[in-house]
């Protein structure tokens, strides 16, 4: 069984692929829903990402914003650690789309 953990960044890279293949937002969204179901981003979210790509911004990371930091599930962290226990906190944080401090506070070896 695969330990692959689907992240928002993976989905956004798929959106870049669709954008570069000149797919419409509706087509890209349909494809993601067909493959990933409820995990797929909303149509509105896909539209926002396509707008960013059209503006030349191909970063798949969220833009910094004020407010509460992103949360993640322990099972996501555990799956990444099962895949490769030698990953640094920074690498884990990047994979999860959170800060290194968020990973540090949740690491099972604390």
From TrEMBL:
<dbReference type="InterPro" id="IPR052709">
    <property type="entry name" value="Transposase-MT_Hybrid"/>
</dbReference>
<dbReference type="InterPro" id="IPR041426">
    <property type="entry name" value="Mos1_HTH"/>
</dbReference>
<dbReference type="GO" id="GO:0031297">
    <property type="term" value="P:replication fork processing"/>
</dbReference>
<dbReference type="GO" id="GO:0035861">
    <property type="term" value="C:site of double-strand break"/>
</dbReference>
<dbReference type="GO" id="GO:0015074">
    <property type="term" value="P:DNA integration"/>
</dbReference>
<dbReference type="Pfam" id="PF17906">
    <property type="entry name" value="HTH_48"/>
</dbReference>
<protein>
    <submittedName>
        <fullName>Mariner Mos1 transposase</fullName>
    </submittedName>
</protein>
<dbReference type="GO" id="GO:0042800">
    <property type="term" value="F:histone H3K4 methyltransferase activity"/>
</dbReference>
<dbReference type="GO" id="GO:0003697">
    <property type="term" value="F:single-stranded DNA binding"/>
</dbReference>
<dbReference type="GO" id="GO:0005634">
    <property type="term" value="C:nucleus"/>
</dbReference>
<dbReference type="GO" id="GO:0000014">
    <property type="term" value="F:single-stranded DNA endodeoxyribonuclease activity"/>
</dbReference>
<dbReference type="GO" id="GO:0003690">
    <property type="term" value="F:double-stranded DNA binding"/>
</dbReference>
<dbReference type="GO" id="GO:0046975">
    <property type="term" value="F:histone H3K36 methyltransferase activity"/>
</dbReference>
<dbReference type="GO" id="GO:0044547">
    <property type="term" value="F:DNA topoisomerase binding"/>
</dbReference>
<dbReference type="GO" id="GO:0044774">
    <property type="term" value="P:mitotic DNA integrity checkpoint signaling"/>
</dbReference>
<feature type="domain" description="Mos1 transposase HTH">
    <location>
        <begin position="8"/>
        <end position="57"/>
    </location>
</feature>
<dbReference type="GO" id="GO:0000729">
    <property type="term" value="P:DNA double-strand break processing"/>
</dbReference>
<dbReference type="GO" id="GO:0006303">
    <property type="term" value="P:double-strand break repair via nonhomologous end joining"/>
</dbReference>
<dbReference type="InterPro" id="IPR036388">
    <property type="entry name" value="WH-like_DNA-bd_sf"/>
</dbReference>
<feature type="region of interest" description="Disordered">
    <location>
        <begin position="83"/>
        <end position="110"/>
    </location>
</feature>
<dbReference type="GO" id="GO:0000793">
    <property type="term" value="C:condensed chromosome"/>
</dbReference>
């Amino acid at each position: 069984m695969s330990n692959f953990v689907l992240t928002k960044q993976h989905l956004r890279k798929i959106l870049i692929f669709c954008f570069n293949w000149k797919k419409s937002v509706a087509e890209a969204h349909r494809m993601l829903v067909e493959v990933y179901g409820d995990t797929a981003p909303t149509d509105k979210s896909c539209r926002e990402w396509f707008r960013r790509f059209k503006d030349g911004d191909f970063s798949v990371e969220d833009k910094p914003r004020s407010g509460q930091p992103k949360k993640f599930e322990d099972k996501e962290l555990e799956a990444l650690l099962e895949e490769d226990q030698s990953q640094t906190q920074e690498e884990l944080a990047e994979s999860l789309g959170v800060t290194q401090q968020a990973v540090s506070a949740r690491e099972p070896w604390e």
